[in-house]
Amino acid sequence: MPRRVTVAKVADIPDGGNVVVSVLQRDVAIFNVKGEFFAIDDFCPHMGASLSGGYVEDGCVTCPWHFWRFRLADGAWDDNPKVKIGAYPIHVDGADVQLELPDV
């Protein structure tokens, strides 16, 4: 059964900002886009860059090293959706930002 883990406070991630948290032995980047929160693996599969350092536009984050674009909603590479990184449901519960963890 999936479980939720509080990873930040809403106030910790301003609009347009992000944070990186370590969960399940991986870094996950959480983005706030106009009050909507998204969580994806903070790792570009091309060369390993931190996606949290990228530019967010039109629902995608652009890798700061080689400009690969990943959709925040599902982690798919915008140029070839067959290539994906992890994407995780986010829930806002009052002032808490919660990451929904997959069954392990």
Tell me briefly what this model is.
With 104 residues, this protein is mainly beta. The protein is built from no helices and 12 strands.
Q: Would you write up a description of this structure?
A:
The protein is mostly beta strands and 104 residues long. The chain has a single domain, classed as Rieske Iron-sulfur Protein (3-layer Sandwich), CATH 2.102.10. 0% of the residues lie in helices and 53% in strands. A four-stranded antiparallel beta sheet has the order 2-3-4-10, with no helix packed on it. The protein has a three-stranded antiparallel beta sheet with strand order 1-12-11, with no helix packed on it. The mean pLDDT is 95.
Descriptive tags:
single chain, 104 residues, mainly beta, Rieske Iron-sulfur Protein, 4-stranded antiparallel β-sheet, 3-stranded antiparallel β-sheet, 12 strands, globular
Query: What is the CATH domain class?
Result: Mainly Beta
N- and C-termini, Cα separation: 9 Å
The averaged pLDDT comes out at 95
Lateral arrangement of strands in the main beta sheet: 2-3-4-10
Got a strand count?
12
Principal-axis shape equals globular
The CATH homologous superfamily is termed Rieske [2Fe-2S] iron-sulphur domain
Helix content: under 10%
The largest pleated sheet is described as:
4 strands, antiparallel
Based on CA atoms alone, the radius of gyration comes out at 13 Å
CATH architecture: 3-layer Sandwich
Number of helices: 0
Q: Could you say how many structural domains there are in total? A: 1
Order of SSEs? EEEEEEEEEEEE
